[in-house]
Amino acid sequence: MLLRLVAALLLCLPAAAAFAQQPLAWKTGREAQAIERKVDALLKRMTLEEKVGQLHLSGRGDGFDAGQIRSGDMGAVMNFVVPAEVLAVQKAVRESRLKIPLIIGLDAVHGFSTYFPLPLGQAASWNPGLIEQAAYWTGREASAAGVNWTFAPMVDISRDPRWGRVLEGAGEDAYLGSVVAAARTHGYQRGGVATTPKHFVGYGAAEGGRDYNSTWIPTSQLFDLYLPPFKASFDAGAMTAMAAFNALNGVPATANKAMLTDLLRGKWGFRGFVTSDFGSITELRLHGIARDDAEAARKALLAGIDMDMMGDVYHKHLAGEVRAGRVPMKALDEAVRRVLRVKYHMGLFEKPDVDPSQAPKLMQTAEASAVALQAAREGAILLRNADGILPIREGVKSVAVIGAMAVPEEERVWTDPAGLGRRKITSLPDALRERLPAGVAIAYQPAFTRNCGTEFADKEAAIRAAAAADLVVAMLGEDCEFMGEAASRTKLDLPGVQQELLEALVATGKPVVLVLQTGRPLVLTWASEHVAAILQTFHGGTEARPAIADILTGRYNPSGRVPMSFPRSVGQIPVYYNQLPTGRPEKIRQRYESIYMDERNEPLYPFGFGLSYSRFTYANARVSASSLPLSGTVEVSVDVTNAGPLEGQEVAQLYIRQPVASLSRPLRELKGFQKVMLKAGETRTLRFRLDARQLGVHDEQGRSVVDPGEVEIYLGGSSRAEAKTQVLLTKT
Ligand code: NOJ
Hints:
It contains 20 helices and 25 strands. The chain is α/β, with parallel strands linked by helices. It has three domains: 2-345, Glycoside hydrolase, family 3, N-terminal domain (TIM Barrel); 380-558, Rossmann fold (3-Layer(aba) Sandwich), CATH 3.40.50; 616-730, Sandwich (Immunoglobulin-like), CATH 2.60.40.10. 1-deoxynojirimycin is lined by residues 107, 151, 198, 277-278, 485.
């Protein structure tokens, strides 16, 4: 066995060596100093126009002019994914006077050629190692095609599932969000693409969940909720950042000097560059803080935006603003310096151009597919499993798979950007056929004309198939225009006619397993009372359906956990686990309590929740010392037992609460988690290290406050964790 493994590894070596990819990381010490000298020397040789050119980011498509690369008027490009086209723009650099390499950007959000689950679905795995690998393979494939910069990770925290972009983030929590941000940053950069934590800052708090809308965020909350994942990404080595579209407390993020310069560069010491979002500099006119594009360019640059994405505003106006003395040359030089610094630290000046003949060899490798499959399995959350209907029992002799989503649509099959042709994506009926005994009949009815579920193709045929089967698997959810950027919704039900179908399927009396593929938590209140099981997935990528089939058939024991609370109704939003207490908590549901007259307070499925085919119990929560000095750490331990019949993974979560402090503290705050595999019957002691500095909050001046006093510690498998211990925070 060992010999075979070694032989297999050796066989892999030549291919691996051919693509040896340098991880991207900030250089330090002498190397960093040498880079500063090179940047100085290069800056001295540049004309005003060439300097502005380094801040000009333009994209593939109509109007793209490679001549601007040759003339030194464009230093960055985006959306080039075909290696031969990347090579063409790189060749244009060779024809320019200074031959400054291009930074080549792309939204490689959850995959390039191999697709992984949507970022929210990756976060649902609560497995940072796996998330890092998904980002690594995304970066690796993208960089093999010549891309060297990704507009990811999106690290915006959001408590509002009406906002369509929650699918790009890690959910509602700053701690989980920070762990995921760091993992993704490491992974992408190890794979060879520089990262861009975005959108700096507060974009996820868009009022009413309406995309691009204003945000109003108190300083304390900015520091405790929205900024930590950015900080984690920068600490992990992110080399660039992207400013947000929204106005934050009345100041558009694209002109927000307090955030971009004072905090990011000043306080945090960030040395990389900041790009605007798509056209967001010219949008400063629409925000009402600039009369024209020249003023918008000036305000953005002076606030700290180094690069103009797709606005053409710096390109057209910045040189004029400098000549007129409205933008000091020093400010322009600083922006250019940051861009050149990143290019040097990325090693772009030494890097050979992309080799289109080699690129395809690194697409869709077996290793990347294996990671995609595991990420899809671990990112699926079993929300309901009445009477243990899952995994599919032996007595089930026929399964009706219903819903167009179960079979990927031809035009929705991921095209291969590197020119490898289309891949085959396994359908759910086929994946089930491969896994269930030969005697089990699998019928399939799409019911809808398309994945979107907005129009019936043949509803009656779907109902007939369901009525004739022992078990119904309905794959429904959000697709098409219902999710992502500019896809805010006020109703979080199943789009189109899907609810009508679901009710008809339930009315057949057959047990219905609802497999959901969505971009956000939907309101599942009706389903939670009527269907037998709910498996929540967030578009699982290339291997989504095999992963779903693995879970349905019991080949994989589900382990995903909710990264963002599922509301009972839209009117509860924002509903999140780490609320502050009120002076009128819910006690007996009477008037003058902080409750709704027509809805419960708690979400349908809380943060951290997720079922397994096993059952995990917690006992003996304890601390290594009863008191904890403000600058110290304490070890928290708990014994976790797999009390169920199957081996499975548990996500053990640690929450704290400080019941009395100088500021009102959340009812629960996540401060640690571990994902562990436990055999049936196994008990393991898990240890967490709690740092007193983690236990503070920020005040309205942005200062960190850690108060002495009692801290309650809860351990368990969700934000409702019950095993309890405590520690006393002391001044010394
Ligand atoms: C706009 C989005 O807000 C941003 O996240 C993305 O990177 C750019 N478009 C480029 O596609």
